[in-house]
Amino acid sequence: MSNIIDIRGFGYAYPPLTPDQEPTWVLEDINLQVQAGEFVSILGPTGVGKTTLCLSLIGIIPQSTGGVIRGDVWVDGLNTKACSVPELAQRVGLIFQDPETQLFNLTVESELAFGLETRGLQPAEIEERISWALSLVGMSDLRSRSPFHLSGGQKQRVAIASVLAISPKILVLDEPTSSLDPVGKAEVFSVVRELRRKQGMTIVMVEQELEHIAEFSDRVVVLDQGRVKMEGPPQSVFGHVEQLKAVGVGAPQVCELADCLNKRHQTDFHFILLEQAHKALADHLDARG
Amino acid sequence: MPGGEPPVNPPLLETRNLEFEYPDGQAALGGISLRIERGEFIALIGQNGSGKTTLAKHFNGLLRPTRGQVLLNGEEVGERSVGDLARTIGYVFQNPDHQIFSATTREEIAFGPANLGLKESEVAQRTQQAMDDFDLTPYANLQPALLSFGLRRKVSVAAVYAMRTQVLILDEPSAGLDWRGAEELMRRVADLNRQGHTILLITHDMRLVAAHAARCLLLRAGSLLADGPTRQILGKAELLRQTDMQAPQITELGHRLASRGMSSTMLSVAEFCTAYGELKTGGEARHASRR
Amino acid sequence: MRVAVDLYVRRQSWLHATDPRVKLLAVAVGLVILLAFKNLYVMLTVLIGLHVVHWSASIPREKILFVWRTLLPISIMIATLWIVFYPSGTPILEFWLIKVTPLSVAQGLALALRINAMALLVFAWLYTTDNNELVLSLVKLRLPYSWGLVLSLALRYIPTFQATYGMISDAQQARGLRISEESGFKRVRVMMPIFVAMVISALRTSEDLAKALEARGFGLVGTHRTFFRDLDFRGLDWLFTGTLLLAAAVMIYLNLSYSFGQHVLRLFP
């Protein structure tokens, strides 16, 4: 069994804001296994606990946040309650939503060097890893730039590079494109697609950009009210448009279309991508003669 | 225009050859002329850096033109203060956390109307109305900064709405919201438009544009590249490609099937579905007129 | 009010290549020494010397003018106050109770020039040292690493907070907040919506930043931290340090034993 991530019966409550209040449970009972090399997308309405789940994979929850935890999260064989956060950070690279607060160094280069300096690597090896990581995300020319002068897409790519330089086995991305414009979003998705293809990393991505999710996820997990509500390949999950709408997550437009056509015109379409829809509808129209 | 005819029914907002340069000389807007009538629902689209926000900030006086004019109801905005213009032009910023500061949601929403110098009873009435319209009454006595992001977003919109401005400018209102949150928010905004408010929506979300905006202003590098009905703008595939804009999936799909009979630009799933149905039964696809 | 935190001028020069610790030492020593001198000719010489330093370090003219322009109000104030309050010798001009004498004019000028010299000395260091080097030089001089990190984070986020302030100010003014009409304490009260939103923003930022630091492995115990770009104390740096300390010693000796440079117009009174 090569489950690189194993979440069993996991629940978490943040510490209450005032001492007399009860802790609020964000996640109730999460059961999820991820195999090495898989690309899993996590969907859910805002506030459902997606960020909580991401932070749990690296041990920041519960070690830095306190609160109440139940169940276990195993990452690469380590338990996130017992193993230190820096050690877990060696295996899990976490990319946050806000580019501004996760680029905290004065230049792109020092940003990439930071995690490696902390681990006591020698300058020669640091140089090698910096060059490699920057080339993977296409940011080699901007090495001495200050993060303040980068575009949103560039910032997130630098964030990904600074995490890659540490060579984690798992990449966890928490809505990396939500504050980016379409150009920036495309840049980030392109990098993630390349990483998937070339490096074969295990990737867990929380996203709202459903149309991209449909394209390259092996598996889609939908969270609702603290639990895993739906799970499976995008082909099957995105077929349940009504259920996805009820959860509050919605579906790619072509999936809504397939659903609409099937209901109104008694067709049997199951496409989830634009190209698939094009082909299916074109064939269908041609068949009519 | 010196002398000239007195404006009869002037547009609500107008710019004439509006140019703007930053203090360091960097050009941001180059010669933009446009007119906005009362009650319109307009989307301001274009890449980051195209000047959308820069243009919008000229309407409520946050920025002043380097050259050219900005007119409100036929009169030049000139040196009218931001506070004064806030009576007519409401601006909801992209990040709700740049607005929220009060101890309770009620106080937060009351802040805007109070600044307008209204009677206390009027302020209270407008505040309550805004909370009801945006389903925020359950949170009236809670601290807005501690609410979830989706709720903070609604609070920031309600807080500007409570000022009952004729114009409402919304800067990326759906950013960071889930599907349902965006739908609910835009439904409220559409209601406001139906009641007569003029809406200027700055957004990257082309699905929202297609669903709600009747007219699009497409900006690139500080110039107004296109100004027309949404259906027309989204129908210009080449133009969208040039400006790195992505049409909604349904629109793109419709264009790809043009050779098989989808003759007009699709703006929604429902439209496409109907048109497809007609096409299937042998007729030319016609789009249902929406507004 | 924009506080400039990135004064670094990216060029290649002997001064850029000099170890920042030596530059820091030169500034500290230079400031102390300058304070011991009041002579007009000494100040003029020092100023000429500093301009040569800036020019040879490829610092553009605008940057040097920036220093002079910024210090102009203070320079004028110092010169004027000295002239008004410390007349000495026979006056050449008199109105009301103010006696203007050649000596006091010379002294006022010398003191004004001294301030400019001190500023040019400090900027010679800041223009040729980037923020990373600056923090690193302090850490190498035994500042605890965590303090260095705090300084580095401050330099990194000050521009961000300035931008946030601008956005919050815009957002609140767009809701009818009028700030230009008040002044003094009332203005501070009126600007509370901006300040509170700034504080909340700062709190959110620091929370997110803490998580980002942890996720990058900060706090790893048991490993000795390395420095990717390290400082190299070259032979030339030793030479500079030696020369600097020697020159300083000579100046101090002359100043204390012979009152060299303590009179405004006579080098050896």
How do the strands and helices of this protein lay out in sequence?
The complex is a heterotrimer of chains A (289), B (291) and C (269).
Chain A: E1 3-14, E2 24-35, E3 39-43, H1 50-57, H2 60-63, E4 68-75, E5 78-79, H3 85-91, E6 92-95, H4 99-102, H5 108-118, H6 123-137, H7 152-164, E7 170-174, H8 182-199, E8 202-206, H9 210-216, E9 219-224, E10 227-232, H10 234-237, H11 241-247, H12 253-265, H13 274-288
Parallel strand pairs in A: 3-8, 3-9, 6-7, 7-8
Antiparallel strand pairs in A: 1-2, 1-4, 4-5, 9-10
Helix pairs in contact in A: 5-6, 5-7, 6-7, 7-8
Chain B: E1 13-21, E2 27-36, E3 41-45, H1 52-59, E4 67-72, E5 75-76, H2 82-85, E6 89-92, H3 105-115, H4 120-133, H5 149-161, E7 167-171, H6 179-194, E8 198-202, H7 206-212, E9 215-220, E10 223-229, H8 230-235, H9 237-242, H10 249-256, H11 269-280
Parallel strand pairs in B: 3-8, 3-9, 6-7, 7-8
Antiparallel strand pairs in B: 1-2, 1-4, 4-5, 9-10
Chain C: H1 14-17, H2 20-35, H3 40-56, H4 61-85, E1 93-95, E2 98-100, H5 102-127, H6 131-140, H7 145-173, H8 184-190, H9 192-215, H10 235-258
Antiparallel strand pairs in C: 1-2
Quick summary:
The complex is a heterotrimer of chains A (289), B (291) and C (269). Chain B has 291 residues and is α/β, with parallel strands linked by helices.
Tag the structure with descriptive keywords:
heterotrimer; A: 289 residues; alpha/beta; Rossmann fold; 2 domains; 6-stranded mixed β-sheet; 4-stranded antiparallel β-sheet; 13 helices; 44% helix; 22% strand; B: 291 residues; 11 helices; globular
Explain what you see.
- The complex is a heterotrimer of chains A (289), B (291) and C (269).
- Chain A is built from 13 helices and 10 strands.
- By secondary structure, chain A is α/β, with parallel strands linked by helices.
- Chain A has 2 domains: 3-251, P-loop containing nucleotide triphosphate hydrolases (Rossmann fold); 252-289, no CATH class.
- Chain A has a 6-stranded mixed beta sheet, with helices on both faces.
- The model of chain A has no long low-confidence stretch (mean pLDDT 93).
- Chain B is an alpha/beta fold.
- Chain B is built from 11 helices and 10 strands.
- Chain B has helices at 52-59, 82-85, 105-115, 120-133, 149-161, 179-194, 206-212, 230-235, 237-242, 249-256, 269-280; strands at residues 13-21, 27-36, 41-45, 67-72, 75-76, 89-92, 167-171, 198-202, 215-220, 223-229.
- Chain B has a 6-stranded mixed beta sheet, with helices on both faces. Chain B has a 4-stranded antiparallel beta sheet with strand order 2-1-4-5, with helices on one face.
- In chain B, strand 7 (167-171), helix 6 (179-194) and strand 8 (198-202) form a beta-alpha-beta unit.
- By secondary structure, chain C is mostly helical.
- Chain C has 10 helices and 2 strands.
- In chain C, a hairpin with a 2-residue loop joins strand 1 (93-95) and strand 2.
- In chain C, helix 2 packs antiparallel against helix 5 and helix 4 runs antiparallel to helix 5.
- Chains in contact: A-B, A-C, B-C.
- Chain A binds chain C through residues 55, 58, 60, 64, 84-87, 89-90, 93-94, 96, 98, 100-102, 104-107, 109-110, 113-123, 126-127, 130, 146-148, 162-163, 166, and chain C through 6, 130-132, 152-153, 155-157, 159-160, 205, 208-221, 223-230.
